[in-house]
Amino acid sequence: MPLVLVGLNPPLRARTFVLDARPWLIGRDPQSDIVIGERFVSRQHCWLEPDGAGGWIVRDLGSANGTWRNETRVDQEAPLQHGDTVRIGRTYFLVFDPQKQLPVPALPLPEMHFDAVRGRVLLNGEPLIPPLTPLQVKTLRALWEQRGVPVPVPHLVNQLWANRSPDDVRPHLQRILEQVRERLRDPYELLIQYDDIQDAYVLTPTPEEAIQVLVPHIGI
C-alpha cells in the first residue's frame, strides 16, 4: 500500500515524503532520510519500514523521547495506516494513502489559559517556559479569544498600543505574530492566517480547518 507522510507543523509543515519500497530513517542525523533538527529528536530516532505484506510499520530505535502513533507511545514497532499521525519530538506527521481523501488527523487541541496576574500562558496546565513577552501574550490572547473569527488589524493594534495608527505599528505587529508562531509550534491552535480582504488575522481553532488550509500546499 503506497503511503505518504506530510508534515503538519514547522519546520516540515506541508513537506511531503512518498514512501517507496525501502526503509526510511528519521532522526537528527544529517544523513537521515527525513531530518528533524530539534533537540527532542534522537540522531537515529525511528525507521519507517515495509512490513513484507504490503503495509508499513514505524519502529522506534530506543529514542530518548519516544515515537508516538496517534498520541500513543510506540513499544518497539507499530503498524501505519491511512489517517494515522506520527509524532517525533515536537514534529507531527500525517500518514495518508494518496488514492484516498486526505483525512483529518485525530489530534486533540491543547488547552490554553492566560494567567493575568503573572502574565503568562499555560498550555495543558503547564506554563510556557521561557515565557512570552507581554506584547506576545496580549496578541495571542486577542486571537485565541476570537479563534475562528477574523480579528481586524486596527482592533489588534488598539489592544497592544492604544491610540496608535495601524500603519505606524504594522511591521511591529507582524514581527510579534512571527515570534508567536515560532514559539508555539503545535500544529493547529496557532495556524494564524492573514485575510488581506478584511485586513485581519484569524487563528484557526480546529483540525478540520487546519487541514483545509494545508491541502493546497501539499505537493505529491
Describe the structure.
With about 220 residues, this protein is an alpha+beta fold. It folds into two domains: about 5-105, Tumour Suppressor Smad4; about 110-205, Winged helix-like DNA-binding domain superfamily/Winged helix DNA-binding domain (Arc Repressor Mutant, subunit A, Orthogonal Bundle), CATH 1.10.10.10. It contains four helices and 17 strands. The chain has a six-stranded antiparallel sheet, with no helix packed on it. The protein is elongated, with a radius of gyration of 19 Å. The two termini are about 15 Å apart. This is FHA domain-containing protein. It comes from Ardenticatena maritima. One of its GO terms (molecular function) is DNA binding. InterPro entries: Cell_Proc_Reg/RNA_Proc (IPR050923), FHA_dom (IPR000253), Sig_transdc_resp-reg_C-effctor (IPR016032), SMAD_FHA_dom_sf (IPR008984), WH-like_DNA-bd_sf (IPR036388).
Record the SSE blueprint:
Layout: E1 3-7, E2 16-19, E3 24-27, E4 34-35, E5 46-50, E6 56-60, E7 67-69, E8 72-73, E9 77-80, E10 85-88, E11 91-96, E12 112-115, E13 120-123, E14 126-127, H1 134-145, E15 151-152, H2 153-160, H3 166-183, E16 191-195, E17 200-204, H4 207-214
Parallel strand pairs: 3-4
Antiparallel strand pairs: 1-2, 1-11, 3-5, 5-6, 6-9, 7-8, 7-10, 10-11, 12-13, 13-14, 15-17, 16-17
Protein name: FHA domain-containing protein
Domain FHA: 24-74
GO biological process, one term: regulation of DNA-templated transcription
